[in-house]
Design brief:
The protein is α/β, with parallel strands linked by helices. It folds into 2 domains: 192 residues, 2-enoyl-CoA Hydratase, Chain A, domain 1, CATH 3.90.226.10; 51 residues. The chain contains 8 helices and 10 strands. Strands 1, 2, 5, 6, 7, 8, 9 and 10 form an 8-stranded mixed beta sheet that branches. A two-stranded antiparallel sheet has the order 3-4. Helix 1 packs parallel to helix 2. The longest helix is centred in the C-terminal third of the chain and has 46 residues.
Length: 252
């Protein structure tokens, strides 16, 4: 049985939808010998649309990456679908996030690279056959695609466009530290529950509840002390009254 290329998991307690991209991003999947046709790839834009359409925009999405990239068209479509989805999206690089996979990461509200992970940015390339005119036309198409890709990165990058293009032209492998320095990610580490936007509110409510319980406990303790004081004070008054009418008064 073939292992799934995209794993989906839902955490009901936190309303978090987890998507794992652990393979090449492409439109066409394996050949199906039952239908004698190629199946749709689980990393295709079509498959992602089905996943995203089923996720309420009030929930959260976490996307885990370990992919060498793949189809520019499919990856760009996934990027745009993620950007248009109203949920809070956290992208976490678990291994490699290369080529178009790193472009998809840029659609996330929070971009995280784990320790020891890598990202690769490079000029787009295409395998093409044809005459000289065909090759020149394809080169022009690649230039247009490159302009679009650079524009996506520059929305949040802290380096100049010239520097970014130079790194892509040389094919650059980025460590988490360099990616953070260039504004291509937001954090280094792993996504914790604290990454959720409403966590601070939950912590405040939890602390407030603990404080209320402590105050309630103190009030109860003070109430018990007051009752104990009243009880012992009444006993003392009764003892003094008894002494004032008995031998205590006679010898007083």
């Amino acid at each position: 049985m073939e292992q799934k290329k995209v794993v989906y998991r839902f955490q009901q307690t936190d309303n978090v939808h987890e998507i794992f991209i652990f393979d090449e991003i492409r439109k066409i999947g394996p050949f199906n010998w039952d239908t004698w046709q190629y199946d749709d790839s689980e990393t295709s834009a079509k498959h992602f649309k089905e996943l995203l359409d089923a996720i309420p925009e009030t929930d959260k999405i976490k996307i885990y990456f370990n992919s060498n990239g793949g189809s520019v068209d499919q990856g760009t479509a996934i990027y745009n679908m993620l950007q248009q989805h109203g949920s809070y999206k956290t992208g976490i690089v678990m291994g490699g996030c290369h080529s178009i996979a790193f472009t998809i990461l840029q659609a996330c509200d929070k971009r995280i690279m784990g320790q020891g992970t890598t990202a690769i940015i490079h000029d787009m390339w295409e395998t093409v056959t044809g005459n000289a005119a065909d090759l020149r036309a394809e080169a022009d198409n690649l230039d247009v695609a490159m302009d679009s890709c650079v524009a996506l990165f520059m929305q949040r990058a802290t380096v100049s466009e010239e520097e970014l293009r130079e790194m892509m032209h040389k094919t650059t492998t980025l460590s988490p530290q360099k990616a953070l320095e260039y504004g291509l990610i937001d954090e280094i580490g792993v996504a914790q529950k604290e990454d959720d936007p409403d966590v601070k509110l939950q912590e405040v409510l939890k602390e407030n509840k603990a404080l209320q319980m402590e105050l309630r406990s103190r009030n109860e303790h003070q109430k018990q002390l007051a009752e104990f004081y009243q009880l012992t004070h009444k006993k003392k008054e009764k003892t003094e009254e008894k002494d004032s009418t008995g031998w205590g008064a006679f010898f007083g």
